[in-house]
Amino acid sequence: MTESKEHLEAADSAMALVKTEEDLMAWHDRWMASDDYAGMADDDVAQLEALYRAKAGWFMGVMAG
Questions:
Q1: Could you tell me the end-to-end alpha-carbon distance of the chain, in angstroms, rounded to an integer?
Q2: In whole angstroms, what is the distance from residue 36 CA to residue 54 CA?
Q3: Residue ranges of the domains in the chain?
Q4: Per-residue pLDDT averaged across 16-23, rounded?
């Protein structure tokens, strides 16, 4: 778990490149199935999941608006 923060930073950077809901789902599938994700500390996983929910919520808001 020593690289957990680095994985979180990489995921955050990758999330910033997500521009479509389809990209978000592909990102989610890749990260959630990765060894990097499985090895992350619980606190970092919670932050990563919060990033995902925020981005998903943004798409929901765009689609509803």
A1: 40
A2: 21
A3: 4-64
A4: 92
